[in-house]
């Protein structure tokens, strides 16, 4: 049976059929541009936008949870419709992800929408980390346990798995995600150089293009204090103007270079590494929670002792925030310093960190027997209602 796999992130939706080789990554929101107020861009329509400056967002998610159903339905209608997937609902299964500790009212509404409005043949509601753990196990059947770090738009979750089952009491969350990092970068740039508080889309690109996780923070801070060519950390970021430059780009900073004609430049210095540093020290911006390495160790310590060496040996980094250069080495370095000496530590970051959960969903649908056991069919839902979903879905 073919199935639609939808990793329904708060910022992007990773979606495709189980028969597809790769997922499509589309915006999971509506957006309006300054120059086209009458038109709203939904999902992949955002590629048609000609000017991303001052983009106004209508987000279905707030603080990591799905609350604006009207916007989400519009996005789903577009994804399932003729413009993208063209789904035949009655012959197709559905796999959708939701955050850990999701509210029961949201879960019930999702069940109703997929069975009663869209009429999918079957439904599997699960966590993105569960799909990532399934994919990790499939890559090497000797890996009984894994610890999934999922750092997305709103949250960062750490969840240990053994034999495909999550250890619920050891799942932890910190309130730091990509949205917070981008907002903090906007504040820093607005305070130091140029007012960019309305330029979320552009500053998100700046963050992705320029920032990195520092392996030696104090050394990088010393370099950032230097003047001229001695400051090897400094970069000039040329902002897009959407007339001559469609997407911003970096170039090495040079004291003697001046802005040319239409070029508008941001000078990026210690912002390059202090923004990702929030993932390791949330207290830097007043959030009194642990950073990712401490969270990993805390989570593993909550698991049975015989499981702990296997979890330290298989830490998997997923989500958009795990794409910062140097983050894999930084997590390894800090976890190694915190973990007991007699345990080996191995941190793995897949190439497709954003779509890794989606590929896990594809692998799961491929194992039909497992998939059927975890899913609820439309007939079962019509007979038993919400109760069958509560009993079947492990979320």
UniProtKB/TrEMBL annotation:
CDD domains: ASKHA_NBD_Arp6 (cd10210). This is Actin-related protein 6-like. Belongs to the actin family. Pfam families: Actin.
């Amino acid at each position: 049976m073919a199935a639609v796999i939808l990793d329904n992130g708060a910022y992007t939706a990773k979606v495709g059929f189980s028969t597809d080789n790769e997922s499509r990554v589309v915006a999971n929101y509506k957006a309006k541009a300054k120059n086209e107020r009458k038109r709203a861009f939904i999902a992949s329509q955002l590629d048609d936008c000609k000017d991303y400056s001052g983009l106004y967002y209508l987000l279905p998610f707030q603080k990591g949870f799905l609350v604006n159903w009207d916007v989400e339905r519009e996005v789903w209608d577009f994804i399932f419709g003729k413009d993208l997937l063209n789904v035949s609902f009655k012959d197709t299964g559905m796999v959708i992800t939701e955050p850990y500790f999701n509210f029961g009212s949201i879960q019930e509404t999702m069940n109703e929408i997929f069975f009663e409005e869209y009429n999918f043949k079957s439904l599997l509601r699960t966590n993105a980390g569960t799909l990532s753990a399934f994919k990790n196990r499939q890559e090497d059947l000797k890996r009984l346990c894994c610890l999934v770090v999922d750092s997305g738009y709103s949250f960062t979750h750490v969840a240990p798995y053994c034999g495909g089952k999550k250890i619920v009491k050891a799942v932890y969350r910190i309130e730091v995600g990509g949205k917070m990092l981008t907002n903090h970068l906007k504040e820093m740039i607005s305070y130091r150089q140029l007012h960019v508080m309305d330029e979320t889309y552009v500053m998100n690109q700046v963050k992705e293009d320029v920032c990195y996780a520092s392996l030696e923070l104090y050394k990088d801070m010393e370099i950032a204090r230097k003047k001229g060519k001695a400051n090897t950390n400094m970069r000039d970021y040329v902002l897009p103007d959407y007339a001559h430059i469609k997407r911003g780009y970096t170039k090495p900073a040079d004291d003697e270079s001046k802005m040319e004609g239409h070029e508008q430049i941001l000078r990026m210095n210690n912002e390059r590494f202090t923004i990702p540093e929030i993932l390791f020290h949330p207290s830097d911006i007043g959030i009194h929670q642990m950073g990712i390495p401490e969270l990993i160790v805390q989570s593993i310590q909550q698991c049975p002792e015989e499981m702990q060496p296997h979890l330290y040996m298989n830490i998997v980094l997923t989500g958009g925030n795990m794409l910062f250069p140097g983050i894999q080495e930084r997590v390894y370095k800090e976890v190694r310093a915190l973990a007991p000496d007699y345990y080996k530590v191995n941190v793995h970051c897949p190439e497709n960190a954003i779509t890794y959960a989606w590929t896990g969903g594809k692998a799961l649908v491929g194992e039909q027997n497992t998939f059927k056991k975890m899913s609820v069919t439309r007939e079962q839902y019509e007979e038993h209602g919400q109760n069958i979903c509560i009993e079947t879905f492990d979320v």
